[in-house]
Amino acid sequence: MKINGTSYRTIWLGADGRVVEIIDQTRLPHEFVTVGLTSLDDAAKAIKDMWVRGAPLIGATAAYGMALACLEDASDKGLARAYEVLHVTRPTAINLKWALDEMMAVLAPLAVKDRVDAAYGRAAEICDEDSEQNARLGAFGAKIIAEHHKAKGRTINILTHCNAGWLATVDWGTALAPIYKAFDAGIPVHVWVDETRPRNQGASLTARELNWHGVPHTVIADNTGGHLMQHGMVDLCIVGTDRTTRNGDVCNKIGTYLKALAAKDNNVPFYVGLPSPTIDWTVADGVKEIPIETRSAREQTHIFGKTEDGAVCEVQVTPDGSAAVNYGFDVTPARLVTGLITERGVCEASPEGLRGLFPERA
Ligand SMILES: CSC[C@@H](O)[C@@H](O)C(=O)COP(=O)(O)O
């Protein structure tokens, strides 16, 4: 994607081909700062502290984390340690484990001396694959938006939750890829952006990237979507996912489930964009089986923002002494999902739907 005319991915290699460059997303939307990761510990910290976030980008960073680890210790013991250090950084997005397993499958059979180059090679492929998959799913999703536009002959209003855009992936995004493709094709779209408390990935990141791309959008408080749907102001919802089960249950940022319930009650189609590494074929029941990340209560009790004099600071929004809890994700059961938009096409959120697109997994 382009920022002020310059093309960026969210993760890339520095001039030496070894340092891994990222955008520090904790500084957005007010500051654009890039950071060079030079060690396994840097990569683990970047994921855990959410300098990078979003399921596909977490996976891509973990892949490069394994490459950085190989520079330090490419032995079997070193690889096993790196896998463990990275695996525990964030529990919900399955792309993390997927990427680590991909790296291990390539690296484990090799001689130690060959592992550094192979690790950088596979990590780069994982990044390219993510970008291509998202571009493809974006084209399938754009067709859905185009159909709505053809039927209604006016701007299509799309509600999204959290940030499942370019910043959450290597490029394009998942939920936002169809929107970028439709917008670029000249279809008039407008995006309702849920702010997405507590970390405000919608207000800070989705609004930031839609703004960079020039896509019309409006930031709304998280509880606004149901009202908009009751008044015919949402044509469809598109969200991303951190883990989708083989039955089609969708785990995504906390609050997604409530949007899906409101969508069902108002006959608003509810779509989920996902590249295939986000499908966890080992899990059937998302509510029972997906581990939900609990993050620091400080993310709930405090909020970052820009003051009128331009300084970025953190303030407390709750009274001293009130307890707070911060569940990062929830699960939307498959029955509430209209369709899964993947790089192979759109399917029903069901075992049959997913197996139809991915028969090799049957
Ligand atoms: C394309 S990303 C899909 C999801 O990862 C996204 O919707 C999301 O929930 C991100 O959560 P985050 O906690 O910011 O990593």
Automatic annotation (TrEMBL):
Keywords: Amino-acid biosynthesis, Isomerase, Methionine biosynthesis
Protein family per UniProt: Belongs to the EIF-2B alpha/beta/delta subunits family. MtnA subfamily.
Protein name: Methylthioribose-1-phosphate isomerase
Residues annotated as signal peptide: none
Keyword Transmembrane helix (UniProt): no
Organism of this sequence: Paramagnetospirillum magnetotacticum MS-1
InterPro entries, A to Z: IF-2B-related (IPR000649), IF-M1Pi (IPR005251), IF_2B-like_C (IPR042529), Initiation_fac_2B_a/b/d (IPR011559), M1Pi_N (IPR027363), NagB/RpiA_transferase-like (IPR037171)
Active site location: 242
